[in-house]
Hints:
This protein is α/β, with parallel strands linked by helices and about 375 residues long. It folds into two domains: about 35-270, Queuine tRNA-ribosyltransferase-like (TIM Barrel), CATH 3.20.20; about 275-373, no CATH class. The chain is built from 15 helices and 17 strands.
Amino acid sequence: xxxPGGFSFRVLGQDAASSxxxxxxxxxxxxxxxxxxxxxxxxxxxKGLLPxxxxxxxxxxxxxxxxxxxxxxxxxxxxxxxxxxxxxxxDWPILTDSGGFQIFSLAERAQISDAGAIFRxxxxxxxxxxxxxxxxxxxxxxxxxxxxxLDECSAQTTxxxxxxxxxxxTTLWAERCLAAKRRSDxxxxxxxxxxxxxxxxxxxxxxxxxxxxxxxxxxxxxVGESHHEMLSVLDHTVALLPEDRPRYLMGxxxxxxxxxxVARGIDMFDCVLPTRNxxxxxxxxxxxxxRLRNAEHQRSTEPVEPGCxxxxxxxxxxxxxxxxxxxxxxxxxxxLSLHNVSFFLRLMAEIRQAIAEQRFAAFRSDALARLGA
Length: 373
């Protein structure tokens, strides 16, 4: 589907045995081949990694955080520095979230109404107001290729009445975001909410699809629900979204979750797990996690993951990486974050190849078995 502003989305292939699909999302700063994983660069940087390193291990698009950049250094400062792409030295696509998840995570200090949210800054305690209009204004200052409507995220334990309000408010805010949007070179995505209730998810999807936006996200997952509940939500939500638009599952990033979500028709993912676990000495591998602080790795000459083509595995041993972590050397988190991001991006490339070759079912079964899922 062609869209104004220099972007378009095409479905290039469909798995015969599932809803997994190949796509091509053309954006002002480049083409994203889907299914795709977006490394998270919360404050305008994927922690510890250079932009060129990200490209070398296969990153097509990264995510940055509107809430954090709005508070520091401020969206006006980012604009003065040439926009987010130039400021962070990343010349390829960027997605910025809206700040909705931060409203959720700061719920104890937030006052939420139809007008927007008022909360205290986690930096200095100052009062901050975030409305749909401000979320759009900030994201237009940042200059990302994909921007998100402000939404109200709800925990899995939220009662029905509050979920109903969140669904209604999310649609109201999306309408206001669309009305406030001025730049034509940014693709605006809406976020489907509704907890684990099928009827509310259907209501949210129906009202948001009427806005005819370039893409749609499934939000409000990975907030306390079980793996089974997450898959159930995807089973009855993804089919309600337009087939000719990209579908984005927000904040969900375990390898097994990604594989199962791809099977249900999701195109885009983001998660902090690769770098967060990298900073905490835990490596992702095709056969499950490796915890490098464990004494068994002290004298290991093996790479983190045999056969992995990333620079970390090509040059350094488990024993050396363990030493870096035990000595509290900053190179340890850097090298392991690089491996973990590389693992996720390689997983996505393998998924795309399996779909293209009509062997995704076998890939899915084998990968989940090796992961112990």
